[in-house]
Amino acid sequence: MASGFVNIRRDVDDKFYRYRMPILLTKIEGKGNGIKTVLPNMSDVARALSRPPSYTTKFFGCELGAQTSVDEKNERYIVNGAHDANRLRELLDGFIDKFVLCKSCKNPETELIILKVGRTEDIIRDCKACGERTPIDMRHKLTTFILKNPPIKARKGKKATNGDAAAGVGGGGGDVTPENGNGEEGGDPGAESDDELTKKIKAEAAELNQDAAIEKEDWAVDTSPEAVKARQKALESSMAAAVLGGDDDGDDDDENSPYTQFGNWIMDVPETEDQKALNIAIYKKAEELGIEKKHKAVLILVTIFTEDVVAEIPKFAPLLKKMVTSEKHQKALLGGIERLVGLAYPDLLPQVPKILMALYQDDILDEEVVTEWGTHVSKKYTDKDTSKRVRKASAPFLKWLEEADDDDSDEDDD
C-alpha cells in the first residue's frame, strides 16, 4: 500500500513546498458487476485540500462516467468499477487545478464562495494568500452538485460536526489554515478558539479513555520498512518546510541552507553503538554549520528519533540538554514531537504522555512550557487537526502535572 505525503501541486518538485496532502489510497472490493473502488483515506485528502470529500468523490464520478457512493457519517467513499490508483491520482490533480488552486497565484489557500446575481449562481475561489477572487468554470458537471450542496459553515463557538471537519469548513489548503494570514484566530467561523479547546481538554482530562480518545487517521497503517521510510522522508520534508523563512538567519529556502544540510546529514548518519560519540558528532555538525544555538536546529534534530522514541530519549538526553537552552528551544522541540507522532509515526499517538514524561524527567522540558503548549493549539509546526490530536493525546500527562502541583501545594499548607 502506498503511504506518505505528496505536494498538493504535484508539478512542484520542491521538497520544502509547504502545502502537502496524504497520497490517495484505493482498495478494490467485490467482483463482476458489483466491483467497486473504495477510497479509504478520502476524508484525509479532502481535509488537506479544505474541500468536502463528497466533492472529490463526485468529481471522479463525473470524469469517469461512474456512479459514486458517499457516506459522510462512516467516512466511506466509493466509485463504482475498478479504477487504477494512479489514474485517480491524476484526476485528483485535475480537481485541485479546477476547484482548489487560485488562478492568479496557484496557491491552494482558497475558499469556495457561491455568488448569486439575480437568478444566476457562480462559484468563486476566494484566495486567502493573494486576495484574488477567481471564477470556477461553470461548464463542469461538478458545479451543479456544489450549488446543490454548498460548503457548510459552522457557527462560531459551536462544535463542528464530523462532516464539517472533513469538509474543511472555513477554507484554506495544506498545512496552513487561513484564519487571518498570520496564524491568529480570525475569520474562520468553524474553528475553535484556543480558550474553547483549553476548556474542552481540561473537562475531558479526568475521564479520558486513552484508547477511545485517540482517533485513527487511516483505515490501516502500513508498517512495512518501505512505508516507515516514506513517512520518515515526509517528516524530513515537513520539518524543513516548517523552518523556511521566519527566523533570524535569513532565507533558508535553499538546498545549501545550514538547516537543510543538517537535516540531510542526520538522515544519512550511520548507526553506531557508541552513543556518546554519536551525540558529540551531531553537536559538532551543528556547530560546524553555525546553528548549534538556534531553535530551528532542535526542530530538525527530532528527525533522529524513530518509533522507539521513548527508549531513545534517554540516549540523546545529553545532546538535547546542550541544544535546548531556552523556552523557544523547548517549543521547537515540542513542535518536532508533534510532527514525529502526527506525520511519521501516527501509531505513536498513544505514546505521547510517555514521550513528554521522558523529556520532563530528563529536565529537557519545563512544566510551564509543556502546560502552555498542551492547552494552546498552534499551526506553526503542523496543521490544526494534527495539533489538536497530539494535545488531546497529551492530556494524561497534563493531568499528572496538575495533580502533582496540587500535592505539592497541600504539603506546603501542612
From TrEMBL:
Residues 185-194 have a biased composition (Acidic residues). The keyword Protein biosynthesis applies. One of its GO terms (biological process) is formation of cytoplasmic translation initiation complex. It holds the Pfam family eIF-5_eIF-2B. Residues 252-411 form the W2 domain. It comes from the Eukaryota. The keyword GTP-binding applies. Keywords: GTP-binding, Initiation factor, Nucleotide-binding, Protein biosynthesis. GO terms for molecular function: eukaryotic initiation factor eIF2 binding; GDP-dissociation inhibitor activity; GTP binding; translation initiation factor activity. GO terms for cellular component: cytosol. Residues 154-194 are annotated as: Disordered. Belongs to the eIF-2-beta/eIF-5 family. This is Eukaryotic translation initiation factor 5. It comes from Mycena venus.
